[in-house]
Amino acid sequence: MLTGRRIVLGISGGVAAYKAAYLARRLVEAGASVRCVMTDAATEFLGAQTLAAITGEYPVLGFFDEPEVSPHTALGQWSDAMVIAPATAGTLAKLATGLSDNAMIATALAAEGPLVVAPAMHTEMWDKPSTQRNIATLLADGVTIVGPAEGALAGGDVGPGRLVEPEEIVAAVEASLNRDLEGWHVLVTAGGTREPIDPVRYLGNRSSGKMGNAIALAAAQRGASVVLVTAAPALRMAGVEVVAVETAQDMADAVWARVDDVDVAVMAAAVADFRPVTPADEKLRRAAGPPQIHLEPTPDILAGVAGREHRPFLVGFAAEAGSLDGAHHKATTKGVDLLVGNDVAKPGSGFATDTNQVTVYTPDGAADTWPLLSKTEVAERLWDRIRATYESG
Ligand code: CTP
Fold first, then answer.
1. CATH, domain range 6-176
2. What is the position in ligand 1's atom list of the atom closest to the CA of 189?
3. Counting atoms of ligand 1 from 1, which one is nearest the CA of 298?
């Protein structure tokens, strides 16, 4: 519910703007006070009078000829959260760069609460590298992106680019205001470690860091103070302190130095189990023939945390291939509170995908299998589960 919440609805100029009237209605029904701001192009698709009738307030249409002296700052300061639906490709570009040449973007800049953006455009425009770059920037800035969905588009075309249904946007606005992890200190590990063989080569694995990044970002958006120890290329993420590491030893040092200060540790990294004993100082040459590389075990970071006297609530991961028997075994033997297993051999699950299908185990071996979800949704559900288990124990 959004009872008592003050929501600004920004509407930019795409044909899906007609759905914004229904969205405004749903926000009001959810208990919110709603004020709208429209771009010039949006007024070609939807009447300002319609929104005025639904919300009880005439929309802001520009910087000038408005009752307020500074309509964008007044609206931004008034709001608890802002949602832009539909967001055109041009609006995404302006949001990503802060180009506030209309009152809607200026309001987004002036607002301090969460921002939810629901893109809608033709598939070709959605797929353009520039649009995808802007989406990545907005995600890193902590903006919630909802959709687009796949379906019928303007002019009879079909594909990804359709505005998601208003109910889904209302749910995203509600979620964006959820600060249920406020006051929590959490540590997340991510990515695949790299163990040097020589100055050029390493032993590594296929982990992309996407699952760990999603877990860190979701916690930060829900109000937690987050440290992300990552061996993946370090992304900038709003509200997340990123500690970049390369090897299992680096990761162990970084985790063990910080873990006494956190309430929850989520170990999503794929850590090498073995490393070359002595990496060569110089590049190994082909002419010297196949090298003999002697390996030794790396530190078991998770075991080092599990063995602490005052350990945090501990979540382990297990990437298995073909069967989850290994994940079940790890849940019951590794001293974790929860273990997230996934079968990386399954389509849509595993490394470098944007989706994951996981089974969550408790130390008694009980399993809860979730459907195939986006990694963002897996992260949200995981925090719900961690919170429920943490608070009941
Ligand atoms: N892990 C760790 N340090 C290591 C290896 C793994 O902290 N040196 C963590 C991972 O981040 C994960 C969990 O332990 O949360 C399980 O990792 P996994 O590689 O599946 O477990 P292993 O015990 O190495 O089992 P195996 O390689 O036999 O599957």
1. 3.40.50.1950
2. 11
3. 8
Digit-coded pLDDT (tens) for 47-84: 999 999 999 999 999 999 888 999 999 999 999 999 99
Q: Where in the chain is the domain with CATH 3.40.50.1950?
A: 6-176
- The DSSP annotation for 143-189 comes to -EE--PEEEE-GGG-EEEEEPPPHHHHHHHHHHHT--TTTT-EEEEE
User: 303 CA to middle of ligand 1, Å?
Assistant: 9
- How far apart are the CA of 273 and the centre of ligand 1, in A? 7
Q: Taking a C-beta distance cutoff of 8 angstroms, is the pair 39, 12 a contact? A: yes
Report pTM.
0.87
- What is the CATH T-level fold of the domain 185-391, as seen in this structure? Rossmann fold (3.40.50)
Strand order in the sheet with 338-343: 240-244, 225-230, 185-190, 264-267, 313-320, 338-343, 358-361, 367-369
Is the pLDDT reported for residue 94 higher than 90? yes
Mean pLDDT of 351-356: 82
Candidates 273, 296, 314, 324: which one to mutate for ligand 1, based on the most atoms within 8 Å of Cβ? Answer: 273
pLDDT at 245: 98
Closest CA to 364 of 392, 390, 391, 339: 339
Which has the minimum average pLDDT: 12-16, 111-115, 273-277, 353-357?
A: 353-357
Sign of the C-alpha dihedral, residues 340, 346, 347, 353?
positive
Give the chain's end-to-end CA distance (angstroms, integer). 28
Looking at the chain, which residues constitute the CATH 3.40.50.10300 domain(s)? 185-391
Q: Is residue 298 lining ligand 1, measured as CB closer than 6 Å? A: yes
pLDDT (0 to 100) of residue 131: 97
CB distance 336 to 307 below 8 Å: no
Beta carbon of 269 within 6 Å of any ligand 1 atom: yes
pLDDT digits (tens, 9 = 90+) for 213-240: 999 999 998 999 999 999 998 777 888 9
